[in-house]
Write a structure and sequence with these properties.
Layout: E1 5-9, H1 13-26, E2 38-42, H2 49-54, H3 62-73, E3 80-81, H4 91-96, H5 105-112, E4 120-124, H6 127-132, H7 134-141, E5 145-147, H8 151-168, H9 173-185, E6 190-193, H10 196-203, E7 212-214, H11 215-231
Parallel strand pairs: 1-2, 1-3, 4-5, 4-6, 6-7
Helix pairs in contact: 1-10, 1-11, 5-7, 5-11, 8-9, 8-10
C-alpha cells in the first residue's frame, strides 16, 4: 500500500471507533476504492495518560507510544494522527522520535479560536489535561481567556469520560448538557471539547445546542484534508 497515513488509537477504543466513524461521515466517496488508505494501531494497553500526568510514579505512556510510532514509521506512512487530547501532553517527545509529521490537535484548536478573540473559553477535558495547562496555554496564545472547571464540574466531566464512555460506551446526553450549561453559567462563550470521549458523546447529541470547539472534529477534518492531498483523491462535491 502506497500513500497512506497512520493512526495511533486505543486511548480509548470507544473514542477511536468514533474518530473513524466521523472520518467516514466527513469523507464518503462513491466506491470502496475511493476511501482513504490508513493503518490503525489500536493500542488499548497504553498506560493511562491522566494517571501519569497527575502522578509520575505511575506507568508512563511515552515509551509505548514511541514504540508504536517506530513500528508505523517502518511501514512508510505520509503522516500520523493521535486522536487523544491528553496524549498531546507528550507531543514534543513523540514528534522528536520521528521525522514523520504528527498532526497537532492543539494547533488546530488554536487556529479555530481566531474567531473568539478576548472571549472566555471553557475547557472540558480530563483532569490530567486540565491540570497540565495544555489548553490554558493554547487559549492564551489565541488571545482568549481560559475557563478551567472547578472541582465539582471536573468531577462531572471525569464521570462522563471514565464511568460513562470508557467503562460502558454510554453517551449520557443529560450529564453532557449539564456540563456545558455549567460552563455557560460561569461565563464561557464557547467550550473546547478537549477529550475524545466527550467528542464521542457530542457525536450522539442531536441538539448541538451549545457553542463548542470539538478538537476531535478538527483533527478529523485535517486528517481527511491531508489524506485526500497525499493520496490524490477527489474532494466530495
Amino acid at each position: 500500500m502506497k500513500h497512506f497515513f497512520g493512526i495511533i488509537g486505543g486511548m480509548g477504543t470507544v473514542a477511536t471507533t468514533n474518530f473513524l466513524e466521523e472520518m467516514n461521515k466527513l469523507y464518503r466517496p462513491e466506491s470502496d476504492q475511493a476511501y482513504l488508505n490508513y493503518i490503525l494501531f489500536n493500542h488499548a494497553t497504553v498506560p493511562d495518560r491522566t494517571a501519569y500526568i497527575l502522578d509520575h510514579d505511575q506507568a508512563s505512556p511515552v515509551e509505548p507510544l514511541i514504540e508504536d510510532i517506530k513500528q508505523i514509521e517502518s511501514l512508510g506512512p505520509d503522516f500520523l494522527a493521535i486522536p487523544c487530547n491528553t496524549a498531546h501532553y507528550f507531543f514534543d517527545d513523540l514528534q522528536a522520535a520521528t521525522e514523520l509529521p504528527i498532526i497537532n490537535m492543539l494547533t488546530l484548536v488554536e487556529e479555530a479560536l481566531a474567531d473568539h478573540q478576548g472571549e472566555k473559553i471553557g475547557i472540558c477535558a480530563t483532569k490530567g489535561t486540565s491540570q497540565s495547562g495544555l489548553y490554558h496555554r493554547t487559549i492564551e496564545r489565541a488571545g482568549c481567556q481560559p475557563l478551567a472547571p472547578d472541582e465539582a464540574l471536573q468531577e462531572k466531566i471525569m464521570t462522563l469520560i471514565y464511568d460513562q464512555v470508557k467503562n460502558q460506551a454510554l453517551a449520557d446526553l443529560s450529564l453532557y448538557e449539564e456540563i456545558l450549561s455549567d460552563f455557560m453559567d460561569q461565563g464561557a462563550s464557547a467550550v473546547i471539547l478537549g477529550c475524545t470521549e466527550v467528542s464521542y458523546v457530542n457525536s450522539h447529541d442531536p441538539k448541538k445546542a451549545f457553542p463548542i470547539i470539538d478538537a476531535e472534529k478538527l483533527l478529523v477534518a485535517e486528517v481527511v484534508r491531508q489524506g485526500i492531498q497525499s493520496q490524490g483523491k477527489e474532494v466530495n462535491s
